[in-house]
Amino acid sequence: MGELIDKLRVAESFSKAASTYDSVAALQRNIGHQLLEMLSSHSQDSQSGHTEPASILDLGCGTGYFTSVLRDRYPDRPLAGLDIASGMLAYARTTRALDNDVTWICGDAESLPLKNQSYSLVFSSLAIQWCENSSMLFAEMSRVLSRDGIACIATLGPQTLCELRDAWSRIDDYQHVNQFQSLAQLCKALPDDLELIETECEMRVLHYPQLKELTCELKGIGAHNMNAGQAKGLTGPARVKAFKAAYELFRTSEGLLPASYEVYYLILRKR
């Protein structure tokens, strides 16, 4: 399969968005906190008895927001934050008041620069949707997890920003919106030694008075179209006007424009 997601663009886009990300990432924070609640419920319901993880990896740590939350939750455990965007890591290092036990690592989730069985908990909120090769991603996740280790993941499904995709589809046949994998595709990519022990799915719909607020928010978090072969030079005034008119068809009776996010929550255990 040819590369569908431009990893260099992913890294550059999120690096540039480091200073603005936290100010517009309310949805991302909400989803990450829900993922932590799901992890807590799993830990409390565990039949085998709950023990705190020996070491934690925040995979796709971004600005370090949840790295900091994980440090508060597990204050005495070795903790690492890994991200492909060097700009995000630089921001995290300088803005998060974390102790020296936190290790910041620049790396690709599909080729982790980490030792085998080095972490007992992998936390990853809204990061793995930028990985094209899910089989490689999960194989790497399994490799760095210790025996009975847990991977706690939130990611986005293909219905994410369906209104945006639909509006553009009325204008041309190019791919203007990131396309993410389905839950079935993700589950099919799991190796035999990673067991899916809990999953939840939900649709979250945000609303905006004007389309510009949505597009500015997407720019603020760095979530541009990362697909290779995307349309270039096709966003002139006439096309943009037509696109805005197409999106207006979604305006609700309350006078707001919706933007939908399909969210998957997964808890995996290393067999």
From TrEMBL:
Top enzyme class of this protein?
A: transferase
- A Pfam family this chain is assigned to: Methyltransf_11
**Keyword presence, Transmembrane helix:** no
Q: Which UniProt keywords apply?
A: Biotin biosynthesis, Methyltransferase, S-adenosyl-L-methionine, Transferase
Q: Which superkingdom is the protein from?
A: Bacteria
Q: Please give the CDD domains that the UniProt record associates with this protein.
A: AdoMet_MTases
Q: Which GO terms describe its molecular function?
A: carboxyl-O-methyltransferase activity; malonyl-CoA methyltransferase activity; S-adenosylmethionine-dependent methyltransferase activity
Give its E.C. classification number. Answer: 2.1.1.197
NCBIfam families per the UniProt record, alphabetical: BioC
Q: What does this protein do?
A: Converts the free carboxyl group of a malonyl-thioester to its methyl ester by transfer of a methyl group from S-adenosyl-L-methionine (SAM). It allows to synthesize pimeloyl-ACP via the fatty acid synthetic pathway.
Question: Could you identify this protein by its name?
Answer: Malonyl-[acyl-carrier protein] O-methyltransferase
Originating organism? Neptunomonas antarctica
Ranked from the top, the taxonomy reads: Bacteria, Pseudomonadati, Pseudomonadota, Gammaproteobacteria, Oceanospirillales
What gene makes this protein? bioC
